[in-house]
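Newbie here. two chains, one complex. Structure please?
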Amino acid sequence: MSLMEKPVFVDEKLQEVRESGRLEYRSRSLPTWCPGCGYFAIVEGLTHACNTMGIAADQSVVVSGIGCSSRFPFFVNLFGFHTLHGRVLPVATGIKTANDKLTVIGVGGDGDGFAIGGGHIAHAAKRNVDITYLLFDNGIYGLTKGQASPLSAIGLRTSTTPFENPERPLNPLMMLLSYGASWVGQSYAGQPDHLREMITQAIAHRGFSYLHILSPCVTFDKTSKTYTNLSMKVRRLPPKHDTSNLMEAMTQAQDLDNPAVGLYYQQFRPTLSDTFDQVVALSSGEGKGS
Amino acid sequence: MNTTDIQIALCGSAGDGTIAAGDILRNAVAAMGYRVICFDVYPPEIRGFGKCISRVRITKEQTYALKRQSDLLVSLDDSHAIPHAGEVRTDGAIVYESKPVAHCPEGSHMSGHILPGQIPYGIPLRELAEKATGGARSRNLVVLGVIAGLLGFSPVPFQKIIEKKFAKQGAGVVSRNLAGFQSGYEAGQNTFKLDNVFCVPMESVPAAGKVVMLSGNAAVVQGCMDAELNTFFGYPITPATTIMERLATAMPKRGRRLLQTEDEISAIAATIGAGYTGSRAATATSGPGLALMAEMLGLATMAEIPCVVFVSQRGGPSTGMPTKTEQSDLNAALYGSPGDSQRIVIAPTNVEGCYRCAGKAFEMAEKYQTPVIVLLDLYLSNRYETVTLVASGPPFNLNANKPLRRLEAGEQYHRFAMTEDGVSPRAVPGDAGCMHVVTGLEHNTLGRPNDSDENHTAMSHKRHSKLQGALQHPDFTVTKRIGHSGRVKVGILAWGSTFGECLEAMFMAHAEGISCAAMKVVMLSPFPIDAVTQFMDDCDHVLVPEVNYEGQFAQLLQGLLARPVVRLSRVPGSPMPVELILGEIRRLAGAV
């Protein structure tokens, strides 16, 4: 699939964007990412989703960690909390616990989420905190100039693996599925339409939604997760994929060579807010279990 | 005037019910209207044969610390109690098992260790328990009965508390325990009494305010609830766990939320997340947890987010001595974050102070938009004191936020606007049109990353200067001088739980005619330099007793004030002995 199906003229495009109302969700700060970075598509996808869903900007918080991806809150016009490396999910959990009326979106990179912050994912998924977690996977540490990440491909040469990366990457979708995340999907920054749709669905889901976004780092990875490679390898989930079947989702998630995009698994179960309400009811002797 | 002042020490092995018996005893005497101060020492293991001691000091007027010498030692396990025989004063008594179940090798029975002048009460505790209840498990209740009978207390308050304590375990357990207590009570009443100093009945219950008995941690919880703590996140760690446990019961009943997180990093991260939304949020931990929270506390300083952290110190470094007390996390509390990250650190000195500091911490965190650390220690967290509650309701300000002005049309909100006092009006998610980003990066008034030298200098000044207001915080005792006024030979400067021992020592020194005064320093950061300097000006010698090896408070004083102080630093794992402080006072006053 080609990135641009028809030639786009800047003025025409600007006019369209202005009229759509999406600009309301863009901040006055311009992104600091390298030209061609997949993350531009994610900002575009999120602002599009907010616009489509009519999300109130002052009732929403974007929480990020540290890394290229985590500069994200500065580029959207929502409340933002740029926290510490790896701590997106516990901070987001605190925000949602204190005020569950807010739409809370966590964003972070693969190093932020699966290296330093890896311990938190299981617990956010287990508790079914009603937040959306957008994981930007470029398979590399970009902001520190190109070191290996837990999702770097085996054999990748980086500044910390100058001969080659000897370690196998983690399988994030398998992890999330086994942690009990109630919405698990994957998308690709090279397919902006699909990405928008998936972000919208992820936000709409009531519970912990995990969207894994494959996104090339054009500066520090010239060989592995590139647009060329990903555009060749990425496939759609089969049309008959059953999103309520955990085993089927896990089978699809095994395929790291040809990653499938789409919604892998969705489950409806009480969220963290629901369990708090249940505890409140039990403490006053009202509810007796659920 | 009769001056009831009895200290009882119960000593046994983990699993003997020593601490449970101490708990019933202190509750019963508090219900009678006596003032109590109690402290338990127990091993880090739940069973196994570690030593447990429960000490209860019973007085008519509130005292400040336990005495070094007990009036009555009760042994549930001679192997542990024998080394404590020496802590019983002359004319004091020791209660012990008179019919051990097996042959005792020489030297292993209490009877061989009672000193001349001490009164032995050998009582067949096991036999009494077996006769009354059919088993030996209720020996601790028998012992409790012996104490009550021996001292001439009414059995009724004890019976009421036993009924309440065991109600959940069924009528059988209650009646067995009552029977055990009764048989001990009769034995205690009927045995010989040589020394009537024990038997000073309380004439009437004093009625000034409502008197309750609380542990330091329970007082913290009461303070949190009265200050309308909204969200709490925690991870279990001795000796702070009971704060979370008590809140876990209290908060849902008021519709509030508590979450046990996966680690201390998440606990503080979620606390800061909740604080960011405007919720009154807190966490509680000990030294090892504080170390894990260091980075996040720096974020709260940088992003100017209110949050409250209760830190109950224990012996360190590392895992250290989890069930022993120490005051060695002062430096970590003051400085343990990356960069110039000053925050408010307050340390109560007694149980009543735990209540007040807990409530005021939320007020200060909100007012100055900063993390506030309330520094406790195991001795303060776990000790029980009778506290008089004021009838006029909770003395806390429930909204200390700086008012937020409505934005003009098209006006951009400056989250970190420069103001005279350094505090910027704070908008939280949900405030219309006030979208902004807070960050751990250095930022300008809008919250946008900015690392220019002018900006970093101005922002560093803003973050530090705003805290100075806390030194003038209304209704909050930053420092307090007690004792002789004017010029004194010896001045004691102390912080935290050790202050109680300092007061006891000071009053003993007064009785010996030594001129001395004490100042407690509750606020450790920002530091009340003026008040402390003024106090030091009045003293020939300044003595600084604290339970840590490095003399961390003395270092702080010397760093800030560059004046000589006399350090008294000890790490016994237990409170600073009063006699040690008194000895230093005498030495400095030239009385020896």
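Moderator note: The longest strand of chain A covers residues 103-109. Chain A has one domain: 10-283. Thread marked as resolved.
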